[in-house]
Each structure stands twice: as C-alpha cells, then as structure tokens.
Write a structure and sequence with these properties.
Blueprint: H1 2-29, H2 35-45, H3 47-74
Main location: membrane
Subcellular location: Cell membrane; Membrane
Organism: Brassica carinata (Ethiopian mustard)
Length: 78
C-alpha cells in the first residue's frame, strides 16, 4: 500500500513539474511547449529529483506533525 501511494505521489509530482516547465517557458520566452514534450523532458532529465522529493516530503510532514504535537502539549503552562 505504501508503494502504491508513493508511486501515485511520483506521478503527481511529475505532472506538476511538467506543467510548471511549460508555464515557465511560456512566461520567460513567450515560447509554447507541447505538453508531451514537457512531460518527456521531465521524465528524461528530472525524474530522479522528483523521486527523491516524493520520498522526502512525507518524511518532513511526519516530522512537522510530531513537532506540532509536542509544541501543543508543552504550551499548557503558559
């Protein structure tokens, strides 16, 4: 189940990177990039970074949640 969730997160992040690449090309150079070309470029050049990011984000969310829980428990003395 965790593997499926991670795979879905990777696919979502690849899509976000591809769309942002096309938007950046449009706004920076007034150039139109085909969605398929943006997706292929993302898969070729940035898939490793997307996979690492998809692994680290849930870890950071858990750490942040633990810190928020600890901070809520410690503020009762104020």
């Amino acid at each position: 189940m965790i593997s499926l969730a991670w795979t879905m997160q990777v696919l979502k992040n690849v899509q976000v990177v591809a769309v942002s690449k096309a938007a950046y090309a449009h706004f920076a150079n007034y150039d139109v990039i085909n969605a398929c070309d943006a997706l292929c470029t993302t898969l070729r050049s940035q898939l490793g970074s997307v996979c690492i990011g998809s692994t680290l984000v849930p870890v950071f969310v858990v750490i942040r949640g633990m810190i928020r829980t600890i901070n809520r428990g410690g503020n009762s003395s104020d």
